[in-house]
């Protein structure tokens, strides 16, 4: 039975304050600045803090726990595996091979092999290395606003300064081009009258920046960190076709968009994309660190034994977690629930947008939505201060949201676990609506 929200102490509570003080004293301030909740445990789409307060979770631990927190079957399987084997380097295990087999079976049929790793950033690094080895080129086309991880390869193809600031120089060879941020078009145009103007600018970017040695293009199906920016219909297919025409590998970064998050098992299904390399993470393990790079056999076969391996990649505990998580997603129809509840939430937010002067834009696919907060709808002046205030006041009412995202820190990301019921989702939207309208006045 869903009990959240239930707040019984002043927030943050006394125990939470104690641990927050420990964190401030003993940990670096490198982590993102979240609301002051100290998690004790979580179940489904609800969180309990160390003071016994209950919250609705609209974060999924940054789009990870797609099957919900502490799913009973998942917990039981992890207990069993911990008693058997949890690490053996890259020796073959049943779980790793079965996971690789499953990933090949459920992804596009041009993809033939899966390399099991630990983090999303690792898959990006592996994809870049593979593309360069296979194509004998070094340039990677990426997009302004992109987030592909915090390691040097991922950071270099990323398109936001906050990930790179103070860590230069980045790895050479990235060509950055515009991504279609239609609410704030860089070319001051409107879709569909623009006729994909930002796509047309791609050729000019290559003409002026490339040395003629392009190995690959990498993109997210939607840009997460830049503000849950969703491209217009057909744009991604145009990118894929451009790559084919120019003999360039198409790398799709589905680290956060896969395993039901967008209302499809993979976001690529929306436009029937067939990437040459597919990066997966977050929801694949739904809690236990796990990622994978799925690629075309010919590309994957350029690697000789020992040229790319990982200490923890594909360990039995993580691999089994992936198999169990995928099984739960399939058997419990979580993709369908993501699409249904996500559409319901999107429609509710669009209705709120009509009457709320500070809610500038509402966008989303499945259970990932973005609310762009502005101080004025006509000028679209972004307001990070209002965004922080909204998130903090929602926390006080029992709804946990991730820290603001976007170029201007003015986007609220909505990403609950895929198990969330429409009833609990509505409770969360009710809280957001109440806070938005209160601040709006």
Commentary on this structure:
With 441 residues, this protein is α/β, with parallel strands linked by helices. The chain is 38% helix and 16% strand. It is built from 14 helices and 15 strands. The protein has helices at 14-26, 60-63, 72-84, 94-106, 120-135, 152-157, 161-164, 197-209, 235-245, 297-300, 316-331, 334-355, 384-396, 422-440; strands at residues 39-43, 46-49, 54-57, 113-117, 139-143, 174-177, 214-219, 249-254, 277-280, 291-295, 359-365, 368-376, 381-382, 399-400, 411-414.
Question: How would a crystallographer describe the biggest sheet?
Answer: 7 strands, mixed
The CATH homologous superfamily of the largest domain:
Type I PLP-dependent aspartate aminotransferase-like (Major domain)
Number of helices: 14
**Uncertain runs with pLDDT below 50, 5 residues or more?**
none
Indicate the radius of gyration in whole angstroms: 22 Å
CATH topology of the largest domain: Aspartate Aminotransferase, domain 2
Average pLDDT over all residues = 96
The helicity comes to 25-40%
Q: How many extended strands?
A: 15
Q: Tell me what the CATH architecture of the largest domain is.
A: 3-Layer(aba) Sandwich
Number of domains: 2
Neighbour order of strands in the largest sheet = 4-10-9-8-7-5-6
Order of helices and strands: HEEEHHHEHEHHEHEHEEEHHHEEEHEEH
Category from helices, strands and their pairing: alpha/beta
- The rounded distance between the terminal residues' Cα atoms is 35 Å
CATH class of the largest domain: Alpha Beta
Report the sheet-strand fraction.
Answer: 15-25%
Query: Shape, please?
Result: globular
């Amino acid at each position: 039975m869903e009990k959240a929200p239930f707040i019984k102490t002043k927030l943050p509570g006394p125990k939470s304050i104690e641990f927050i003080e420990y964190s401030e004293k003993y940990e670096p301030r490198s982590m993102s600045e979240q609301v002051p909740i100290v998690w004790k445990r979580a179940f489904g789409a609800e969180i309990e803090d160390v003071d016994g307060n209950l919250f609705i979770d609209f974060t999924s631990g940054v789009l990870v726990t797609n099957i919900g927190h502490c799913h009973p079957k998942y917990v039981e399987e992890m207990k069993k595996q911990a008693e058997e084997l949890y690490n053996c380097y890259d020796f073959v295990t049943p779980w790793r091979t079965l996971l690789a087999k499953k990933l090949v079976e459920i992804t596009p049929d041009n993809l033939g092999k899966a390399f099991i790793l630990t983090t999303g950033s690792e898959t990006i690094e592996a994809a870049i290395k593979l593309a360069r080895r296979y194509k004998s080129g070094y340039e990677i086309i990426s997009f302004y606003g992109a987030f592909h991880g915090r390691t040097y390869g991922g950071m270099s193809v990323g398109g936001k300064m906050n990930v790179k600031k103070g860590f230069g120089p980045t790895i050479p060879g990235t060509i950055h081009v515009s991504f279609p941020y239609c609410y704030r078009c860089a070319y001051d145009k409107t879709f569909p009258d623009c006729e994909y103007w930002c796509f047309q600018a791609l050729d000019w970017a290559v003409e002026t920046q490339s040395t003629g040695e392009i190995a690959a293009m990498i993109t997210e199906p939607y840009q997460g960190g830049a503000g849950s920016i969703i491209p217009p219909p057909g744009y991604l297919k145009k990118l894929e076709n451009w790559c084919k025409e120019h003999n360039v590998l198409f790398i799709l970064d589905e680290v956060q968009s896969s395993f039901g998050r967008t209302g499809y098992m993979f976001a690529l299904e929306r436009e029937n994309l067939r990437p040459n390399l597919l990066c997966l993470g977050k929801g694949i393990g739904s809690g236990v660190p796990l990622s994978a790079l799925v690629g075309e056999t010919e590309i994957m076969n350029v690697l000789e034994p020992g040229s790319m391996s990982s200490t923890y990649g594909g360990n039995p505990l993580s691999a089994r977690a992936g198999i169990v998580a995928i099984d739960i997603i399939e058997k419990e129809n979580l993709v369908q629930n993501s699409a249904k509840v996500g559409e319901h939430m999107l429609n509710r937010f669009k209705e709120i947008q009509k009457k709320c002067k500070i809610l500038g834009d509402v966008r989303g696919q499945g259970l990932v939505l973005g609310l762009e907060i502005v101080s004025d709808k006509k000028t679209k002046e972004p307001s990070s201060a209002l965004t922080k205030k909204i998130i903090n006041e929602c926390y006080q009412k029992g709804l946990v949201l991730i820290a603001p995202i976007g170029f201007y820190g003015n986007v609220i990301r909505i990403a609950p676990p895929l198990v969330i019921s429409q009833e609990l989702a509505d409770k969360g939207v009710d809280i957001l609506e109440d806070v938005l309208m209160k601040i709006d006045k």
